[in-house]
Specification:
By secondary structure, this protein is of the alpha+beta class. The chain is built from four helices and four strands. It has helices spanning 16-27, 29-32, 63-71, 73-83, and strands at residues 2-10, 38-43, 54-60, 87-96.
């Protein structure tokens, strides 16, 4: 299994309505991208000062599935139209998560 994690910091001028629209765009991705086994996202819980504002976690079978997700037109459009305009900073990482299996999930993702 491969995990992809993206962390976002929003611009100070990003509104709650814009962030909600971005979450709506992200929530549509599991129904459009078969490579996603699990897909969760949500705002920071506010427990630690200096944390990122928002996280996305995707679980995929392998690097090929990650590339399918990364390059999928629905994902590209969600980032371009809803997420990237709100960002002041982003970080991404992919790592192997051995010994884990996950059935493919469809439907509305739950926040992290």
């Amino acid at each position: 299994m491969l995990r992809h994690i993206a962390l976002f910091r929003f611009k100070p001028e990003a509104t709650d309505e814009q962030i909600s629209a971005a979450m709506g765009a992200l929530s549509a991705l599991p129904d459009q991208i078969d490579a996603l086994r699990k897909f969760r996202f949500g705002p920071d819980a506010g427990i630690t000062d200096g944390a990122w504002d928002f996280a996305v976690v995707a679980v995929l079978d392998d690097a090929d599935d990650y590339a399918e997700y990364r390059d999928h037109p629905a994902h590209v459009a969600a980032l371009r139209d809803y997420v990237v305009p709100l960002l002041s900073e982003a970080a991404r990482i992919q790592f192997e998560s051995e010994g884990e299996s996950a059935p493919r999930t469809q439907g509305s993702p739950r926040p992290i």
